[in-house]
Amino acid sequence: MVQSRNGGRGKQARSAEGSSPDKIQQLQAFAADAATTLSTNQGLRIADNHNSLKAGPRGPTLMEDFILREKLTHFGHERIPERVVNARGSGAHGHFQVYRSLSEYTTADFLNDPETRTPVFVRFSTAAGAQGSADTVRDVRGFAVKFYTREGNYDLVGNNIPVFYIQDAIKFPDLMHAMKPQPHHEMPQAATAHDTFWDFASLMPETTHMLMWTMSDRALPRSYRMMEGFGVHTFRLVNGRGESNLVKFHWKPKLGVHGLAWDEAQKIAGKDPDFHRRDLWDAIEAGHFPEWELGMQIVPEHHAADYGFDLLDATKLIPEELVPVQRVGKLVLDRNPDNFFAETEQVAFHPGHLVPGIDFTADPLLQGRLFSYGDAQAWRLGGANFHELPINRSLAAVHNFQRGGRHRLQIDRGPVAYEPHSIGQGTEFRVDGGPQGFQSFEEPLESPKLRRRSPAFDDHFTQATLFWNSMGAAEKDHIVHAFRYELSKVMLPAVRRRMVDNLAHVDPRLAMKVAAGLGLDAPDPKAAAGQAGFRDVRHASTLEESMALNMVAREGAGIGTRRIAVLAADGVDGVSLRPLLQALGAAGAECRIVAPRLGTVATASGRRLEVQATLIGMPSVMFDAVLVAGGKDSAEALAKMGDAVHFVLEAYRHGKPVCAVGDGAALLRLLDIAPGTDAQALAKSHPGVVLGTDLQPEGLEQTVLAFVQAVARHRHWDRPAADAVPA
Ligand code: HDD
Question: What was the pLDDT predicted at 515?
């Protein structure tokens, strides 16, 4: 395209129209050539991009080299401030469609019309780490969705945990300062396992409920594609009659909710710090588009006080057993960004980006966010015009008289920059007082001005206990270990002690177990109750446990996109392997042949099998399950290799399904599986381990069936002796 000075193609294109055919051809040739020619930012063609301008071939570089200076200046300004929180993130494009009209609850256009596909951009993130930190750290994950609706942008800026650490936004800077690396030495990165975080947490009992979640496997998602999302706050839906219902938003992933083992997450952080980013990118590139259903828990205003806690308190959730989640629509992510910086980095979310029919409540955490995000974006993106960046632009036309500011892209014409006016032509923008114009819900307010919280916010433990009670044995075990790990990194004994005393208010056994791991005596709940800010309040809970909070007890969601390592070496039995690979592939799994080296391995019958990864390059932590192929020579060779044996043991230790076919069982030697153990006994002593001893077609069918079932369970945390495995 020929660029005219005023930035458009208009003038040149118009003058070309009046020119002779020869002239037009010349112009077109010039334009085509320009499109492939390196230029400066002013459009000047560059003749040499390898040498700066010097005084002689061995002389100093000349100040005059404006091409060099432009290039270096631009490079030096490439970085912008990273987000103060949630700096590490990954994004994708997609669309959202509602299943049926929700007009009974809301006027929001995108929730009313099941025919409408609303484009979205989603950014997932960790909260504490810097932009270059690892993906698999223990942390809450951000789950921010920008809906480009016909009525303007709507942002649902949530997390993968349904509650938050604090109740009032005025504590947010304190929370994040305590959580981020300590200011004197900037350590540790992307971790809460340090003094300042636990000092703060132990003095702020309102953090307890979220701590239970972040110490659980929810804080170690297997994939962004396999985690839930939550709007956290109670919002409001407003219908055409002006009636309001309270709502909690949920995202329910199609692939189920799955976590990593803590040891595995730490190892992945070293082996592939981009684990979640790569997983999302690869899935979309492969056409396995991640999906979530939008869920809503809708509570009529007059039932707001029915649940024994305050719906304005962001440290509380509404148990799904009390208010079921209605699944109302589907989100699909089907396109990777073209440019990380322009899209994932420059996208600007804001809980205050609303559309008519959705509104806020007076949740004091949400209220503070409404100020903070706009302010943070203006700082981070260099001014008040961040809405003009392509990724942030509204699809609905933007008309107003806001003017100027840094990096203004729009050229506003004419003398009128105010309303009302009588002189501008085509700028008589009217105010829309109708249903499409945003109207705040007319919530009656009359109260004294004060800095205080409602006493309804005082109970910090009932829901933390509910969470604990809802966990299975293995999940409880993981929580205990997480508290022990984190607190073992705390150097101040008084902080450890205080935290354990606090935990006694959640559950005495939890506190005892954590204390035992830290070498502390029995926790003392009374000591905790003596702390400033501690209120020993418990509202009556109508529920003992909530199975919706439990990750492990959920229905399996198949084995789609699960990654299975197939260990093989020269001499592998290709005949028994082929039907297994076919059946696993047909069930949706992604199998990769992992061998000591790249290239091919020779099968026992003399064929060649292509190797897709090496034992070192793609260690066990990169996979969801392991299949050790049969074949005497292959098995014997692998059994002599520490890396191969470690691969299997480590997968076993991390609860992953392991299948050994024929001679491949040699790699399970260290797992103490007695020869001839039948399947039933094996399921008890080594859950999730499948031995394929019968190599006839029917036997292989049985093997694959059992293995698929084991993979669908994701992890077998109930292995009695997993901790004894040296991996
Ligand atoms: Fe926040 C970023 C989610 C409380 C202030 N927050 C940010 C992001 C997510 C959340 C997902 C990253 C958005 C993106 O991908 O660009 N934040 C939450 C949730 C909260 C929450 C679910 C509680 C329910 N946040 C919260 C409070 C404040 C902030 C109380 C301040 C008063 N959050 C910010 C911020 C960030 C941010 C400083 C950093 C960069 C940005 O906004 O764009 O303004």
Answer: 98
